[in-house]
Amino acid sequence: MSLQSSSLTKIIEEYIDRLLEENQAGEVSLRRKDLAEKFGCVPSQINYVLRSRFAPENGFLVESQRGGHGYIKIIQLTFSNCDEEVVHLSDLVGNAITEQEARKLLVNLQNREMTTPRERLIIEVALRNQDENGRSLFDVSPYRRDLMRAELLKKILTSLSLG
């Protein structure tokens, strides 16, 4: 991605963030075509911003309808109780997660203030230790390590959410 499109991505992201802040309900409905025209870009640039900046792991849900009158509804996720947060975190982790995906998820959770920098570091150390032991001591396959990583990550995040 070029520097110009990178800065356009940031400008579009900031515009949508501003709309979300102005709307107290934590959601906003937009037309992809209108956004593309406003920022002088192609609709695929809008899609990129939505996929990369407003994904569930970043605390958003995007509902999209294609077609002439299609809209995009961006909803900022909030949780009314710990159980909802636990289900959301479990869904984000899934049944298997790579080391890189786990690290990205933990950074996003820290950015959303769902974990502290200290908690993130402790979780990363625990996951790395489990991975190293699985690799060197027990010769566990990469796929099995991804499964084990997901289980440990879900248990730790659940404990933090309920604590």
Features:
163 residues, elongated, 3 strands, Phenylalanyl-tRNA Synthetase, Chain B, domain 1, 3-stranded antiparallel β-sheet, 65% helix, 7 helices, mainly alpha, 9% strand
Report on this structure:
The structure is a single chain. β2 (60-64) and β3 form a beta hairpin. By secondary structure, the protein is mostly helical. The chain folds into 2 domains: 3-76, 2-Layer Sandwich (Phenylalanyl-tRNA Synthetase, Chain B, domain 1); 82-162. The chain is elongated, with a radius of gyration of 19 Å. The protein contains 7 helices and 3 strands.
Give the N-terminus to C-terminus distance in angstroms: 41 Å
Shape: elongated
Please count the beta strands (DSSP E, at least 2 residues each).
3
How many discrete domains? 2
Structural class: mainly alpha
Gyration radius, in Å: 19 Å
Q: Helical region count?
A: 7
Oligomer: single chain
Strand content: 5-15%
Give the SSE layout:
Layout: H1 3-22, E1 27-30, H2 32-39, H3 43-53, E2 60-64, E3 72-76, H4 82-93, H5 99-111, H6 117-137, H7 142-162
Antiparallel strand pairs: 1-3, 2-3
Helix pairs in contact: 1-3, 2-3, 4-7, 5-6, 6-7
